[in-house]
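Hi L.,

As promised, RNA methyltransferase:
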Amino acid sequence: MTPPVSSDFPADAPDIFSRVRFVMVSPTHPGNVGSAARAIKTMGFHDLHLVAPADPDILRQPEALALASGAGDILARACSHASLADALGPTTLAFALTARARAIGPPPCDIREAAVQSAAELALPDARVAIVLGTERTGLSNEDITLCQRVCHIPANPAYSSLNVSQALQLAAWEMRYALLPLAGAARLPDTHARHDPGSDPASSERVQAMLDHFEQALLAVGFLDPLHPKKLVPRMRQMWTRNRLSADEVDMVRGLCTAMIRSADRATPQND
């Protein structure tokens, strides 16, 4: 099947993200393909390619659709190829993701280094990058790896380095996103859209001092502060609150606590008839 051109991607997809493809070689489990689609979409990518899947209809299997969980558009747009060479056709840099060390083959790197190298590659306008993952049981063959320019490893627990293929793809997609966001001109943190919360502004000294007086009254009301033997409780308490630079909301919260303490103390005090 012919790979999709860039116009097939969503209009809001950053161009640099549309030039990254994830290739699954000989996948056998529809659930892993569906999970892979979800992982790709979650990280802002859109290009999923399969090589010789065990089931020609794997993209339409109910388990694949269920585990895609809202990423059905990725499955609908995914391409199948008869060979890895076909799937890698337009790419300029391909990383073979594998858990095993290979004595012969392309130079190795870890997944974070791969993402950094990908960002440098994609700074070129016609460059395309591929992350290649093998079948669930045996991974990538040596022949598959020779078609790639780099071998890529996830630094997992050496005593148990086996990752589910969709989990490995999720990690790779995350590292790629983190490395590419600056090139896409996107932020790494959620945008508040310039909404300002006045309650988070620092409280004035006047408001803090009034709160401290109120807090001292509350400590007296509940019997925690002995006015005859205060020792250094009050200055230490004032120093503690002052150095923390309370916000306006925090001052209001503490004053509400003080009011509740004083009311509780009043209710607990026996009333003389």
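The chain has a mean pLDDT of 89.

Thanks again for sending the construct details.

K.
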